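Shipment paperwork, digital attachment
Item: protein structure file
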Amino acid sequence: MSYSRFSLAPMTPVLNAIGLVAADVEATAAFYELLGLSFADPGDPHREAVLPGGVRLMLDAESTIRSLYPGWERPSGGHRAALAFQCGSPAEVDAKVAELATAGYTVLSEPWDAFWGQRYAAVLDPDGSCVDLYAPLTAPGD
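Attachment content:
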């Protein structure tokens, strides 16, 4: 395949953003800030946090999505996305779930020692998206 000097070489698409639709962007940002993310532009209907490695987590208000996609309706019948946050230790999983529960978030699955070798739990964000928290039960090399 040849390219003129003015065309771009083909490139494999690279995932660099994950977008979530939020009924209340500020409430959803506050939830993820408890998990260590930092969002720019408070009060904006579009908020972004840059994750390690450069991938962005984007939050958009339902009104923004409706303006882009007329006829869009909030999905129902379960969570639409799941994010997973690795914690530093099993104790950190327990502590973070307790912190989120104290802050009023719904714990879907209390921390437990999963058969695949992780301390594992699940919490719902303000929009009902599942957020998994996990840590290896043993340190690498054990």
